[in-house]
Amino acid sequence: MQLTVYGPLRSATGEKTVTLEFTGTTVADALAEFTAAYPRATPYLYDGETVRPSVRVSINGERAPLEAPVSNDAELTLMPAVQGGSTDR
């Protein structure tokens, strides 16, 4: 599986695109395997055991929910949680 990562995930992987041997079946499985391979990415994708609500994943260019099926030959894009800013206007 090929993963393209953005933001602070690049510092966790050392490159924009990485290849991951994927043995799962869903997007959630892919995130778990990605963070097992790149543990420094974990705080950007997870809040404890739960995937952060602001994490965005695309499969072959299409946005995908965590329960979406994904194959080993898919191309995933990971955009981590964005933190900071103000909600006051």
Automatic annotation (TrEMBL):
InterPro entries: Beta-grasp_dom_sf, Mopterin_synth/thiamin_S_b, Sulfur_Carrier/Prot_Modifier, ThiS/MoaD-like. It comes from Natronorubrum bangense JCM 10635. This is Sulfur carrier protein ThiS.
